[in-house]
Amino acid sequence: MRCADRHGVSLAAHRSTRATCAGLAWADLVLVMQGSQLCAIEREWPHLRSRVRLLGDFLSAPPFLLPDPWGEDDRVFQQVFSRVATAIENLAQRIEAKRSVSGS
Length: 104
Known about the structure:
Layout: H1 2-6, H2 21-25, E1 30-32, H3 35-44, E2 52-54, H4 74-103
Parallel strand pairs: 1-2
């Protein structure tokens, strides 16, 4: 929460929940942090597999792995947060570029 706060993101009202088919079915794109999460979704709901991507796939250079910083110190949280922010920015640029091409 401290790391998110430093970047102007409040997680005070955030609560994690277990993924459900209904919770994922509405999404065009489901982003996960780790391969094990992708595999779990594919195993549980194989029809959703085409919608699931690793967020690290949107990083420009390796390492593409986005480890879970839970239990680590602030430095690790900051590193992961920065890499997540970069991946999201790259993804947003790709979506915008695709939208611009299809809208022309």
